[in-house]
Every structure is written in C-alpha cells, then in structure tokens.
Records
---
Amino acid sequence: MKRYFIILFAVALLFVVFRCKTSDKEKKIIISPGTLENKNIEESNKKSDILPDSFYILSEDWKIIKTVKYKNSISTEVWGIINGYPTDDTIVGNFDKDLTLEKAWFEEIIKKKKVDGYVNYERTGNSMLCFSDKSIKPLIFKNWTDCKVIKNEGDLDNDGIDEIGLQEPSPASGCENYYVCSNVANRWIIKKSIPNTVNMRQAGVIMVYKDINKKGNIIIRIPLLFYDDQKNPIPNEFYPVGCNWSNVVELSVKF
Ligand SMILES: [Ca+2]
Ligand SMILES: [Ca+2]
C-alpha cells in the first residue's frame, strides 16, 4: 500500500513539473512583433532589384522621415496582400486574460440547411475571427469573405492581451483597410482602422507598431490621401495622391 502511494506521488510530481515547463515555454512564446520595425522589408535597397518607384514617409510637420523605394509591378498580387506580412491561415497568441496561448483564424460563415432530407451548405457573405478557446466569442465581419493577412501584432496597449491585425481586400479599388482588433472588457472589437494604398502594400510598409516614446500610443502609417490636415497645410510637392500611389504620413495616436 505504501509503495502504491509513493508511485502515485511520483507520477503527480512529474505531471506538475511537466505542466510548469509547458507553461514557462508558453509564456516565452508570447512575443510582440508589432513593436519591431522590419527595415529590410521597408527599404529594399539591394542593387540587383529594379526599383522604378518610390514614396516618402512623412512626419506630421512634413519632414521626410524615410524615402521608400519599391518594386512597382502590376503582376504582383495587390489586393489583400502586404509584402512581407504573414500569410499563414492561423496565428498563435494570448488572446484573453489567461497566460496560455490560443490559436486564431479567419473563417467564412457557412450556414448548414436541410432541404428535402439533404444537407445544403449556404454562403452568408459574412465571416468571423475565431479562437481555439471557445470561451472567446468570435468577432463577426459583415460583407467580407476573404482574408489573406492575419497577424499577431503583439500587446500594443500593455493589457497582457495580444492585438490582431487583419487586412481587408478590396478588389474594386486600390484603397484597402487594415483592422487592428483588440479584446476590450472580454469582447473582441475593431479598435483601429488603418487605410492603405497599393504602393504601401507593395513596399511592405509596417502599418502599425507600439509607440515606445508615448505611453498608450501606437504609431500608424496612413496614405496622405486620407489625411485631414486642417491646421498645418500639406505642401504641394507631396501631391498628387491616389489609391494606387500616395505618400504616407506617420502619426502617433492614442490606442
Ligand atoms: Ca490565453
Ligand atoms: Ca493588448
């Protein structure tokens, strides 16, 4: 009997050690890719590249922060794709208040219908952001069925929960939106919508990252096309702009 208890105790101990190790490992995997600037993608200056086009990333007071050279190719996929961004269907991160990792993915909502005893599957035209932990409610996106870019942005607001970025394709226009989604009070919402143009996506401009100099803020890049500049007029030299090509303004905004 005593031996039986010793064996039971040893097994329990092994289980605890294994669990701790797993959770340590899990904690280490939680990263913040959104805080890093990928300079290799943004400024492709390899001599062998053909770089027929360029644009500026500007500060709010119209100083040129960066000249971005990029390959302007119409054969490249430009809808819903951001050069250098992840293209995996599924991401991993901490998407709720606990310290374990979940998976998240984008999925079209399909309705199952029984017609004359047969099962029919009907497209709804809507989609959702789903989580492997079923206690996290999916986030519904209306009139959107396809998503090629889903990214763990890291914890942008320091609440311990990773943010998720999703690029909405818009084949009707070169202008698209990058949505930054966040878990707020146990509910997933679109917290920031960042417009972008074809040249930004072809050049692989990083759309959003944490502002390490201003607590509670993020840096976003938006096309000059969408910038409402009432106080400080934009100099003429940075125009014209459009959905295929625009200079870009970098802003620090509250998140
Ligand atoms: Ca979690
Ligand atoms: Ca967060």
---
Amino acid sequence: MTTLDDLILYELPGCPFCAKVDRFLKQNDLEVERRMITEGTNREDLIAIGGKKQCPCLIIDGKALYESDDIIDYLRTRIEGEAKEADFSDLKEACPVPWLQ
Ligand SMILES: N[C@@H](CCC(=O)N[C@@H](CS)C(=O)NCC(=O)O)C(=O)O
C-alpha cells in the first residue's frame, strides 16, 4: 500500500465517477485521505477550495482537480513503474451512462 498523504479526495456516496477513482486507487494499492461531502463541513470546505461541490475532487497542494478522468491521469503520474489499469466494466453495467462509453 502506498499512502499519498499530500492528497485529499472529496467523494459523494453512490457517485459512479467517484467509484471509478476508487477502483483505480484500489487496483493500484494507493491510499489517500478521503472525505465524504455528506459529512460535517466537507461540502462547504470543497466549495471554498474549488468553487463547486462536484465530486470526485482531488485536492493537490491546496488546489482542486475535478473530473474523474483527470484525477486518474494525475494518480498515474504518482505511481512508480506502471499503473494497473482498473476495469470499470461492472460499473458500466450498473450505471449505463455515456461517461463510461
Ligand atoms: N465529468 C465528471 C462528472 C462528475 C459528476 O457529475 N459528479 C456528480 C455526482 S455523480 C456531482 O458531483 N454532481 C453535483 C454537482 O456537479 O454539483 C467526472 O467525471 O468526474
């Protein structure tokens, strides 16, 4: 397990885009601090940092990176060696929307 302790990931329960990022983290044995926007002041905190409550959002050096694909691309750059590509096919079945096509 590699802990990337400079990162914070804001998530929303049941969000398929968050599930994509979660899958990639697990596949690559990565750990980051995770905050559900449904808890405490996390939603307000995220809006204060990034300007919107959209999830997932990765905080890097105090800056917000939205978009699951961009977050995964960034995480790839933090992996030494080769990233294991996560399989999202079951998520696609669970949520057949264009983002996974
Ligand atoms: N294209 C974005 C879509 C993210 C998205 O739509 N997330 C939803 C939750 S499933 C959300 O946060 N909606 C609330 C909002 O946009 O304010 C991605 O791939 O991350």
